Amino acid sequence: MKAVRNVLEFLEGNGVKYVFGIPAGSVNAFYDQLLDFPEITPIVTKHEGAASYMAASYAKYSQQLSVCIGSSGPGGTNLLTGAANAMREHLPILFLTGAVPVSTMGLNASQELDAQALFQPIAKYSVTVLDSADLLDEIVKATQIALSGIPGPVHVAMPIDVQMGNVEKLPIPKIEIERHPPIDATLVKQVADHLLQKKKGFIFAGQGVRNSVAQVLELAELLNWPIVATPVAKGLFREDHPLFSGVFGFAGKDDTSLLVNEGDAETLLVLGSSLGETATSNYNPNLAKDRFVIQIDFDSTVFNRKYPVDVPIHGDMSEGLTKLIEELKARGLERPTTVKAIGRESSADTEEEFNTKNVLRKLQEFLPSSTRYTIDIGEFMAYVIHDMEVMEEDTFDINVHFGAMGSGLSAAIGSKLAEPNRPVVAITGDGCFFMHGMEILTAKEYKLPILFVVMNNARLGMVYQGHTLQYKRSHPSFEQEPVNIAAMAEALNIPNFRVDSFEDLSQNVLNALTYLKGPAILEVALVDNNIPPMGDRVKFLSSFGK
Predict the structure, then answer these.
(1) Is residue 131 classed exposed, middle or buried when 0-12, 13-18 and 19+ CB atoms within 10 A define those classes?
(2) Selection from 366, 367, 442 nearest residue 409 by Cα
(3) Which intervals of the chain form a coiled coil (predicted)?
(4) Spatial distance between the Cα atoms of 244 and 255, rounded to a whole number of angstroms
């Protein structure tokens, strides 16, 4: 049998349902054999970069291995941004690339490229298989590495002749996943000692608590401590929880910033955050100043990067929180019957001005509270983080730390495939749309009912605003000739509506664009010259010019 058939049997046997990518000559053997595996659906995208973002989103919300494939040469290079993104988000993706026949390597064959070397800095493992007999073993090894310890992307390059080589049919290997080291009970007791002595503190939660939100809330209530979220963790905590303070960092809330910068907290408990630039408001020293710092994370390399950590706890987040909660309860700490709400700024706004903030709030009024919003990169993103309400847990997908334009469009597709029953709305801009907007056709072809909201201001809004604030001028090329995106959608036979004024938004309009048998586009034609709530981001960038 063909070596690549063993690979597909392995993938099918381990629950892989989708393969994201684009067929091409160097991976045609893979797609040919895929015809015999109806349990695996190929999601054929319009661009390999978009396929990589879909695979990342699918891995995140299905909590399973994702598979993404591209051809040799440009197909592989187009996957690189998504692999780098997956590495930052700790998402297990098996990237497969075709390669020229082994016998032609080094002879300037068509689309020849050393993809192994390119993926090495941005993947946990990268290899080129030179013998058909080794292909399955390398796929299994890569998969185990992707899922073990700190999850992340891996890459296997498959030369054409290696895929098509004849091998024996092999039994489906079992994946042996390395788990996290057990939580150090001594450190848990040390942390409990400190928490019971120091009554004032706050919890700083990053994306690493995605699957441990209930435990974070229980711990916060036991301690009666406020919870501060990073921008990428927005959406994990409901706004109406009395102890949720809001987002700190890029586009964070003013009251949350005051709590961090001027509050009387003696302890900082960091959960699942690497304390990067956007999370810490440009490495704000006040976050940890004169505070006892405790950090729990499954990645030991995040400890003491920028902020000294007094007690680092390495291991699984859920296990660490469970043991800490149990230890505190064993010492007599109990959750209060009622939790007093912390003070925080209201999002109420009586204005009806046609601006980005009000449009986004109005959209939420007309959409189900369970809607997941996948947010692209742009000026509108700051308003999403600062102003949109979190009404149910895990309802925002914001990738501000890597910041790949166009990723939010594809993330919506990956999210919908992972959780078909959850309403999904992508919020993007015209700049992002022109990069990866044709993936709306992918959503159409697979009958995915996703609403794509395009904030169209005919400019690269974040670039324009940032330059104007930093340099007091901007290059005229940042602004572009307006394009009617709704008309483009009409040409693609995709349901659409164009919003030109605040009065155009209504429940009837949203009803007509949702619960369909495919995607729809809501274009918001709006040039908003208000300064976006980007916090100290511009000050930080400006400091490099002094």
Answers:
(1) middle
(2) 442
(3) none
(4) 11
H or E stretch covering 112:
none
Beta strands per DSSP E along 206-291: 227-229, 244-247, 267-271
Sheet with 201-205: list strands edge to edge. 244-247, 227-229, 201-205, 267-271, 292-297, 311-314
Query: b/e per residue, 212-230, with b = 16+ CB within 10 A?
Result: bbebbbbbbbbbbbbbbbb
Contact 48, 75 (CB under 8 A): yes
Helix H or strand E segment including 380: helix 379-387
Share of the chain above pLDDT 70, in %: 93
Q: Where are the beta strands (DSSP E) in 15-90?
A: 18-21, 41-44, 66-70
CA distance 490 to 488: 5
- Rounded Cα gap, residues 484 and 486, in angstroms: 6
Give the residue among 409, 387, 406 at the shortest CA–CA distance from 528: 387
23-68 confidence digits (pLDDT tens): 998 999 999 999 999 999 999 999 999 999 999 999 999 999 999 9
Provide the angle, in degrees to the nearest 10, between the axes of the packed helices 461-471 and 379-387. 90
Give the residue among 158, 88, 87, 156 at the shortest CA–CA distance from 124.
87
CA dihedral defined by 178, 180, 184, 190, rounded to 10 degrees? 170
Per-residue three-class SS string for 419-447: CCCCCEEEEEEHHHHHHHCCHHHHHHHCC
- DSSP code string of 441-503: HHHHHTT--EEEEEEE-SB-HHHHHHHHHHHS---GGGB-----HHHHHHHTT--EEEE-SGG
- Cα 246 to Cα 165: distance, rounded to the nearest angstrom: 56
Q: Could you give the CA distance from residue 23 to residue 12 in angstroms, rounded to a whole number?
A: 19
CA distance 514 to 523: 14
Q: For residue 174, name the pLDDT band (cuts at 50, 70, 90).
A: confident
Are 132 and 103 within 8 A, CB to CB?
Answer: no
Write the pLDDT tens digit of every residue in 375-401: 999 889 999 999 999 999 999 999 887
Angle (CA) 253 256 260, round 5°:
135
Nearest CA-CA partner of 59 in 90, 88, 38: 90
CA 110 to the chain's CA centroid = 35
